[in-house]
Amino acid sequence: MSREDEIRASLFEHTLNGHAPEVKALTEEALGLGMDPMDILFKALIPSLEEVGRRFEKGDFFVPEMLIAARAMQGALVILRPLIAETGAKPVGRYVIGTVKGGDAGVRETCGRRQLRA
């Protein structure tokens, strides 16, 4: 297994488990090795949050675990977002988020917004 593969696997696990400092350090190491920011995003970070979603649907994860994983990924995105913007990557589309007045969807809305921002 190459170091790049090890970094992808570690980013996946540390994001899944909400280890923000490790995610940030691994992202910086990956970029230092010349890894593509889009590769980091689409082959490690997004798959990890997809797994978080699967575990939530199965009842293995709850809202706190989802938020912790999203915060861990956010640390990497702070680093990656400007680099991805420099590549001229175009936005995929637009989205609208709303909640019902008096509803309790605020936490879900926040999670969804963070995932879509990626």
List the helices and strands and how they pair.
Elements: H1 3-16, H2 20-32, H3 37-58, H4 63-86, H5 106-117
How would you describe the overall organization of this protein?
- The protein has 118 residues and is an all-alpha fold.
- The chain has one domain: Orthogonal Bundle (Methyltransferase, Methionine Synthase (B12-binding Domains), Chain A, domain 1).
- Helices cover 72% and strands 0% of the residues.
- The chain contains 5 helices and no strands.
- It is globular, with a radius of gyration of 15 Å.
- It starts with a helix and ends with a helix.
Number of helices: 5
The percentage of residues in β strands lies in: under 5%
Highest-level CATH class: Mainly Alpha
Helix content percent band: over 70%
Q: What would the average pLDDT be, to the nearest integer? A: 87
Number of domains: 1
CATH topology: Methyltransferase, Methionine Synthase (B12-binding Domains), Chain A, domain 1
Q: What is the rounded Rg?
A: 15 Å
Form type: globular
Distance between the termini: 27 Å
Annotated CATH homologous superfamily: Methionine synthase domain
Specify the CATH architecture. Answer: Orthogonal Bundle
H-E order: HHHHH
Model regions low in confidence, pLDDT < 50 over at least 5 residues: none
Strands, count? 0
Structural class: mainly alpha
Describe the sheet with the most strands: none
Task: Describe the structure in brief.
By secondary structure, this protein is mainly alpha-helical.
List its traits.
118 residues; mainly alpha; Methyltransferase, Methionine Synthase (B12-binding Domains), Chain A, domain 1; 72% helix
